């Protein structure tokens, strides 16, 4: 994240990411992607008893190395997406950094004073068990709520955001009371 996104004197309270189970699923897919050709070659070797010419074996090795490269690229993209997708909660605002690809990133931020409501959704038994869910934040002036999916510990994030909103709003209330 660039330094200009955080104001001078602003403190980062939390960084929230997607739950690790989603990265684990993509990692398992990468491992299966790597193992699939080996299993296919093993089955083919057992089915056919005649020896393969060395040129064909070298071609299989080359194709498998390209396959491994593709699996590594998939894993790298999955890791980059997992690690760089982050919701940053500061004492003044919320910053959502969403990595859309290797070279494309979308950064959205809004001040805590603009928050009107927060909705948490845990869509399944697994999400309740593993403590992940979706968080929707309604802000003043926006028709569509701000939405972050599959984050780890959404209730803790909501509590932190709400406590900071109350702190800010009570400070503004004191200022407004002083003016009246």
Automatic annotation (TrEMBL):
Keywords: Membrane, Transmembrane, Transmembrane helix. Residues 89-151 form the YdbS-like PH domain. The chain crosses the membrane at residues 20-41, 61-84. It comes from the Bacteria. Pfam families: bPH_2 (PF03703). This is YdbS-like PH domain-containing protein. It comes from Candidatus Vogelbacteria bacterium RIFOXYD1_FULL_44_32. The lineage of its organism: Bacteria, Candidatus Vogeliibacteriota.
């Amino acid at each position: 994240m660039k330094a200009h996104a955080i104001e001078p004197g602003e403190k980062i309270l939390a960084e929230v990411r997607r739950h690790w189970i989603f990265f684990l699923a993509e990692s398992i897919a990468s491992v299966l992607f790597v193992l699939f050709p080996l299993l296919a070659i093993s089955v083919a070797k057992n089915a056919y008893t005649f020896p393969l010419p060395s040129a064909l074996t070298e071609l299989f090795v080359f194709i498998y190395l390209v396959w491994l490269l593709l699996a590594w690229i998939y894993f790298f993209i999955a890791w980059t997406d997992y690690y760089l997708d982050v919701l940053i909660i500061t004492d003044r605002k919320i910053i959502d950094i969403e990595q859309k690809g290797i070279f494309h990133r979308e950064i959205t931020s809004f001040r805590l004073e603009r928050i009107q409501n927060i909705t948490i959704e845990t869509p399944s038994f697994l999400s309740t068990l593993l403590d992940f869910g979706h968080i929707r934040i309604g802000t003043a002036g926006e028709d569509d709520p701000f939405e972050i999916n599959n984050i780890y510990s959404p209730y803790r994030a909501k509590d932190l955001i709400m406590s900071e909103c109350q702190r800010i709003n009570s400070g503004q209330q004191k200022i407004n009371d002083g003016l009246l």
